[in-house]
Amino acid sequence: MRAFPALPDATVLAEPELLEAFRHDESHIVGCLPLAVVRPHGPAALRELVRLAKAEGFGLVPRGAGTGKAGGCIPTARTVVVDLSAWPGSLSVSPQDLSLQAPASALLREVKAAASEAGFFYPPDPNSWESCALGGTLATNAGGPNACKYGMTRHWVLGLDVLLADGEIHRFGIRSVKANAGPNLAQLFLGSEGIFGLILGATLRLTPKPRDYTTLLLPVKRWMDLLDLPGRLSAAGFLPSAFEFFDPAVLAELRAHGPEEARRLPGEALAILEFDERGCTSDDFLEALADLLGPVADGLEMASDARQREGIWAVRRITSAFLKERHPKKVSEDIVVPRSRLREFFERLEGTGIPAVSYGHLGDGNLHVNLLAASDTAPAALEAQLMTLFRLATELGGTLSGEHGIGLAKRDAFLALAEPGHIETLRALKRSLDPAGIFNPGKVI
Q1: pTM higher than 0.85, yes or no?
Q2: Which residues partner with 272 through β-bridges?
Q3: DSSP letters of 117-149?
Q4: Largest Cα–Cα distance of the chain, in whole Å?
């Protein structure tokens, strides 16, 4: 291919030293050097980019802030990175519609702040919420601690603006929770990682901002008893807005090497429980909750104000970065196991002998299983360990990714473990929507 041409209404980067940074995201994958990086500033740039991609035979890889953990925004051979960080648009809240409109370039923290300033709440809160772009959270159907009560990103999307293979931007959905004029096409693109088209903006659903919070630090006497707690809470009518956990091995790492506040953490294992329903600070609520937690707890700390609440959450927010700093080449997976089978999962995981430590979202069974010794493990042995982990999750009725997506990192495992009809349906959709195969080639399927 000749030197990459200029595009209308776009910034084009083509110097190798500038392209190097786009080979990486937050996963352990290193991609190819892209042919170019294009920052479109309007529809004309995208229209011409799609035309060129078809004519020249290269792919288009969407990228937001580059915080993904599965290699979804990493360039493969003969691809151009479409950097949407400068895509135009503004945030707009409609209180009457309980909705917010935003471009894909908006940072998630800006979206959440705009909702909050208007008295509303946009729940999705992946660990990277302060730095990730909205478009990336839509493309990967991001989750976070709040998903155990509020669901994934897809539950909060009313409509999308999407670039399709005809080079035009199409809008799917309306500003209402009720829209039943045929299948919901916006949902097709959520979590699709850009393989069907590029998400450029969204209309998001909002809910009134919670007024009450009860935040608990829950050390437990016996690790395995913690695994039964999600079921016991739901059976008693309690629905946490977040239920996070640290297994004994992660807790030991934090105590031995973490920041000062982490070195004082008690218990054999540890959980963070939060409730945000109206009345969750009342004496009746707290007494009933204490009675339920009593047999499991090894002491119980409750945040008495916003500062203490933030202090409890600070330990959870730093855990991923802390482990990454301690073990730079670790591999972190985000499998899902049904809550009813959590104890069985950890018993069987121990039986495999895989040297893993775990933390994450116990309230919805989304477990961040970390292989800290990945750099000291032969590649073939590491792949075998990961496949054993994925098989165990799927055999128990779960899946190999809860919130990070498939991208390049899990593509082989996904193709091996997914139901064949699932894969063929996705490929049929890909052929129909993207017959030239220009959108994020080599990812997912």
Answers
A1: yes
A2: 217, 244
A3: HTTEE-----TTTTT-BHHHHHHHT---TTHHH
A4: 72
The fold of 92-208 is: 3.30.465
> What is the H or E stretch that residue 350 is in?
helix 342-352
Which two tokens mark 395?
Answer: 């055999």
What CATH number has the domain spanning 214-395?
Answer: 3.40.462.10
Burial of 118 (0-12, 13-18, 19+ CB in 10 A): middle
CB 280 within 8 A of CB 213: yes
Q: In angstroms, what CA-CA distances link 309 with 117, 275, 305, 314?
A: 20, 12, 6, 9
CA distances 323 to 193, 252, 265, 410, Å, are: 26, 12, 16, 21
For the chain, the residue count is: 445
pLDDT digits (tens), the chain, 445 positions: 568 888 999 999 999 999 999 999 999 899 999 999 999 999 999 999 999 999 999 999 999 999 999 999 999 999 999 999 999 999 999 999 999 999 999 999 999 999 999 999 999 999 999 999 999 999 999 999 999 999 999 999 999 999 999 999 999 999 999 999 999 999 999 999 999 999 999 999 999 999 999 999 999 999 999 999 999 999 999 999 999 999 999 999 999 998 888 888 889 999 999 999 999 999 999 999 999 998 898 888 999 999 999 999 998 988 988 999 999 989 999 999 999 999 999 999 999 999 999 999 999 999 999 999 998 999 999 999 999 999 999 999 999 999 999 999 999 999 999 999 999 999 999 999 999 999 999 999 9
Encoded tokens for 297: 């707890």
Look up the CATH architecture of domain 10-86: 2-Layer Sandwich (3.30)
- Domain ranges in the chain? 10-86, 92-208, 214-395
DSSP conformational letter for 281: T
Task: Give the H or E element holding residue 5.
Answer: none
The answer to whether 445 and 426 are in contact (CB under 8 A) is yes
